User: What shape does this take?
Amino acid sequence: MRGREDDPGLAPTGLRGADGAPRVGAPGGTVECFSTDPALERVLGELYAGFGPQNWWPAETPFEVVVGAVLVQNTAWRNAQLAIEALRAADLLAPLSLLRV
Assistant: This one.
């Protein structure tokens, strides 16, 4: 995949929003901006160019990645996954919904 015309070392244009900031999210899912730091952008672009998409974290949204990362700090992944599934089933896998409970 090609980088931006002005800097081929950056991530492909498809990983950027209209503002040019890098984006993260599940394919076809919610996409969120996570950095506008040029140095970080360059590193992420080089990693993406070298290794491509990794799809290593089984999540549907960026918030779900955060929840999973917190949960897995003190439990096995299988238990964290069960908790995420329970949150999803209860429609609580969103910041405001989780905050309300």
About this structure: The first helix runs from residue 38 to 51. The longest strand covers residues 23-24. The chain has a mean pLDDT of 74. The two ends are 43 Å apart (CA to CA).
